[in-house]
Write a structure and sequence with these properties.
3 domains; alpha+beta; 5-stranded antiparallel beta sheet; Beta-Lactamase
């Protein structure tokens, strides 16, 4: 095994022996005569160690950091607190054709990536109410997980969260049912899952875990099916957790917008409706100057666009360019993502519930009944209360009268 020796001589004296020791062992020698020279001279060893990477590797090695706190949230709340981030860096190597190859490391390029943006790549509505996704790095540390909870309101939020959240292990947020040393089966399956995700293997497993609910006041035991696979060109593995029995059936309930007789925005009049705040129906890609004050305003904007000529559904997010592309392309500020299935399901819900606020004393008008004669299954839940004589339905909101 090759051992390189790097030597540093501090002071004004010269020592040929120290210099010769470094040069004969493929290292580096530097003489430091002042405090100003320390940083520049000491870090010269990086260029030496980078030479094999420049000479023999075609692809740039990409490095991802553990999760940390930084940046601002893109949520619609007014607090705009720090959010979880990860950073990605890659070296810039000198690949110019010289008569004598220099093999220099020119520098480092990097950017910060919001974990919130990574979570959008796994639509939660496709996982079901109790299903969730999570990502683990090659050290078993969690990038995001439903139980990786930030601490808003803490005066030392960033200071206390940053070091702690860099080392949260998967075994600390997935709590396997454990009945003592005599029954270690579930815990060993959890550790096997962790090891497989660290090794970036693909597979699935099932075991029981403890799930908290009701603001962590109660705990239930539930069996989960876990599916996991590595994410290419990253140190991360993606995991999906689905309760046992999930995924056997799929409800297909959509209203084709282009076949709609009337403008679908007519179903979204007024302000007595809301969409799921964490689901991405449609959005412009990074770099767009368009801004919306609420998720509902953004959905209405795209619903209006669907009625214009030339509209195209962009239900797949664009993939990043491969390393073979020599020139970087300028991002299109008007490019967008729009989930056709989710949006058309929302339109169907709006169509079916559109007659609620038009209901008379004994029922819907005849024309409303005709309009709402669809193959959908509707269930209205009326809650009795000693303080209310009856319930009237106003849009999707129940109000006492």
């Amino acid at each position: 095994m090759l051992v390189r020796i790097f030597t540093y001589l501090i002071g004004g004296d010269r020592s040929p022996e120290i210099q010769n020791m470094a040069c004969t062992n493929k290292g580096f020698y530097a003489r430091i005569t002042s405090h100003e020279d320390i940083k520049n001279k000491v870090f010269e060893y990086i260029k030496i160690l980078a030479r094999p990477m420049v000479l023999y590797q075609h692809d740039h090695p990409i490095h991802w950091t553990p999760v940390y706190v930084g940046g601002k949230s893109s949520r619609y709340d007014s607090q705009m607190e720090g959010q979880l981030m990860t950073s990605v860096t890659a070296p810039i190597l000198d690949r110019r054709n010289h008569t004598t190859k220099t093999a220099n490391l020119l520098g480092i390029v990097g950017t910060d990536v919001s974990v919130e943006e990574i979570q959008k790549l796994v639509p939660p509505y496709k996982l079901g109410v109790n299903g969730y996704s999570f990502i683990v790095d090659n050290n078993g540390r969690v990038l995001y997980h439903p139980d990786l909870r930030p601490l808003p309101g803490n005066a030392n939020y960033e200071e206390t969260l940053k070091p702690r959240y860099m080392s949260v292990d998967l075994s600390e947020v997935e709590l396997a049912e454990y009945d003592g040393p005599a029954h270690p089966f579930n815990n060993s399956l959890l550790l096997d899952l962790r090891h497989d995700m660290i090794d970036q293997k693909e597979g699935e497993t099932v075991f029981a875990v403890k799930i908290h609910y009701d603001n962590m006041k109660r705990v239930i035991i539930r069996k989960h099916n876990y599916f996991y696979k590595s994410i290419e060109r990253t140190p991360f593995s993606l995991g999906l957790a689905l309760p046992e029995g999930y995924g056997m059936y799929e409800l297909l309930a959509e209203q084709e917008i282009k076949h709609s007789i009337i403008n679908v925005t007519e179903y979204f009049k007024g302000n007595k409706w809301k969409i799921h705040p964490d689901w991405v129906y449609c959005e412009y890609n990074a770099g767009s100057e368009k801004w919306f004050s609420t998720p509902e305003e953004r959905v209405l904007h795209f619903l209006t666009r669907t009625g214009r000529p030339g509209w195209k559904w962009m239900s797949l997010r664009p993939k990043s360019r491969s390393s073979q592309h020599k020139q970087a392309s300028k991002p299109d500020k008007d490019s967008y993502y729009c989930d056709k299935t989710l949006v058309q399901s929302l339109v169907l819900d709006a169509l079916v519930t559109d007659g609620f606020d038009k209901r008379g004393g004994n029922g819907m008008r005849k024309e409303d009944n005709q309009k709402n004669r669809t193959s959908s299954l509707m269930t209205e839940i009326y809650i009795e209360s000693p303080n209310a004589d009856k319930w009237a339905v106003f849009g999707p909101v129940l109000k006492s009268s």
